[in-house]
Write a structure and sequence with these properties.
Elements: E1 3-6, E2 16-22, E3 29-30, E4 35-40, E5 45-49, E6 54-59, E7 66-68, E8 72-77, H1 143-152, H2 170-179, E9 186-187, H3 189-198, E10 212-213, H4 215-223, H5 231-246, E11 249-257, H6 259-270, H7 277-291, E12 297-299, E13 304-306, E14 312-314, E15 316-318, E16 321-323, E17 326-327, H8 335-350, E18 364-368, E19 387-401, E20 404-418, H9 424-438, H10 441-448
Parallel strand pairs: 9-10, 14-18, 18-19
Antiparallel strand pairs: 1-8, 2-4, 2-7, 3-6, 4-5, 6-8, 11-20, 12-13, 14-17, 15-16, 19-20
Helix pairs in contact: 1-2, 3-4, 7-8, 7-9
């Protein structure tokens, strides 16, 4: 009997995933350990290995379709083996049903059309949905009207139809084009062909000099077209919107004199020490969280959960989004251990190789933009945590020391805290504890000796 291939569950919070690419095609032989496909989760792209050997008999779920975890995505077995009947996979987040669109046929030599919906005499049935949704109005257009719109490379959707049931006829399209001055447009043949190929309405393109629409004008319109957000960006948007909406943030900022620590770090670096400024900041935060455990807690609005372990998240910017690998039990690690874990996790993050365990369980996060020449910023708390520390750049500034004006390297750090857990005084005490440690060079000499 054919063996089902199941969409795995990556981490406790993952409820849906999408296949990025099948690395095997139907009919291919598969050995144990072979990579069947890659999966895009909310935080990374993961390889999915086969636990069986055989032949890939059937692919059920194509790439870029979000489906719930544990969904059957394909079948593995012996060639010719019967494949069980399974229901078509249901997307994990169904959207309101819309009428099906189909392209108008184009004769050879003509540019590709803008996709249009051509109605039959009766509307297509609406696919049943778990929740009642209002059926959108069906756009009706005659074949001649559709052909004219395609020839002119315009979207006929705004045209008001005068035919039966609001059907758009050829004369409606001509009147629409005339009212918008289409005959006065000066469009290069290459620009018109590009607009047709990319589905850009020429009436929406801003003309260049002397009112002429060039290829460059069309390319600009293409760049401005709405594009679907990646799975990662959708999840980032969803979680941070939820956090900013549901968590009462408040902010505390202090200025840290990093002059001595930067000089000390440069000194030990020449001796071969690998520590970065982020490592020192992470250690200072971990030590301060041990002093103020309330900042390392979380709440669901009804109860408070105190975390005995300090699991330090480090926000890492990657192409297309942001991930937060976690240094588990950072409160018990030495500076050298924090440095090693930080580098390992950052490298894996940028390579897209983080595991779900390496991205879960965080209790406090550091967002460091120090390398981006940022004077100050506020971060949004990660859901499930009680606070986050935003670290800006160390900037040369004039400051007063012993009644004298001197130039020092000042770095501002800002605590964003959940006011349900942390009051202003506690937030101030915690962030000043971080500041004090960063400015205590004798502390770092002891920790690096």
């Amino acid at each position: 009997m054919a063996t089902p291939i199941i969409m795995p569950k990556f981490g406790q919070m993952t409820e849906e995933s999408a296949i990025v690419q099948w690395l095997k095609k139907e009919g291919d032989k598969v050995a144990k350990g072979d990579i069947l496909f890659t999966v895009e989760t909310d935080k990374s792209v993961m390889d999915v290995e086969s636990f069986e050997e055989g032949t890939l008999l059937k692919i059920i779920v194509p790439p870029r379709v979000n489906v719930p975890v544990q969904t059957t995505v394909g079948f593995l077995g012996k060639p010719g083996e019967a494949i069980p009947t399974v229901a078509n996979p249901v997307p994990a987040a169904p959207k309101a049903t819309t009428p099906t669109s189909r392209p108008i046929a184009v004769q050879a030599g003509q540019p590709a059309p803008i996709t249009l919906a051509v109605s039959a005499q009766a509307p297509s049935p609406i696919t049943p949905s778990p929740q009642p949704v209002a059926a959108p109005a069906l756009f009706r257009i005659s074949p001649r009207a559709a052909a004219l719109a395609r020839q002119c490379v315009v979207d006929p959707a705004p045209v008001k139809g005068s035919g039966p049931l609001g059907r758009v006829v050829e004369s409606d399209v001509r009147q629409y084009l005339q009212s918008l001055g289409y005959d006065k447009l000066r469009v290069s043949p290459a620009a018109k062909e590009l607009a047709a190929r990319e589905g850009v309405d020429l009436l929406s393109v801003t003309a260049g000099e002397e009112g002429r629409i060039s290829v460059e004008n069309v390319r600009r319109a293409i760049a401005e077209k709405p594009k679907a957000m990646s799975k990662m960006r959708q999840i980032i948007a969803q979680r941070l919107t939820q956090s900013f909406r549901d968590i009462p943030h408040f902010y505390v900022t202090v200025a840290v004199d990093m002059t001595d620590l930067i000089a000390y770090r440069n000194q030990i670096k020449t001796a071969g020490a690998p520590h970065t400024l982020t490592d020192f900041i992470s250690q200072a935060v971990a030590l301060s969280l041990r002093e103020f455990p309330a900042v390392n807690s979380s709440t669901d609005g009804q109860s408070t959960r105190w975390h005995s372990r300090i699991n330090l998240g480090l926000a890492v910017s990657i192409e297309g989004g942001l991930v937060v690998p976690v240094i588990h039990d950072a409160g018990r690690l030495t500076l050298a251990e924090i440095s090693a874990f930080s580098k390992q996790l950052a490298d894996k993050a940028r390579a897209g190789k983080l595991t779900p365990d390496e991205m879960s369980g965080g209790t406090f996060t550091i967002s460091n933009m120090g390398m981006l020449n940022v004077e100050n910023f506020c971060a949004i708390i990660n859901p499930g945590e009680g606070a986050i520390l935003a670290v800006a750049s160390a900037i040369h500034q004039p400051v007063v020391r012993d009644n004298k004006m001197v130039i020092r390297q000042i770095m501002k750090i800002t605590l964003s805290a959940d006011h349900r857990l942390v009051d202003g005084a506690l937030g101030a005490q915690f962030i000043n504890a971080v500041k004090t440690k960063l400015e205590d060079i004798e502390l770092w000499k002891r920790l690096t000796s």
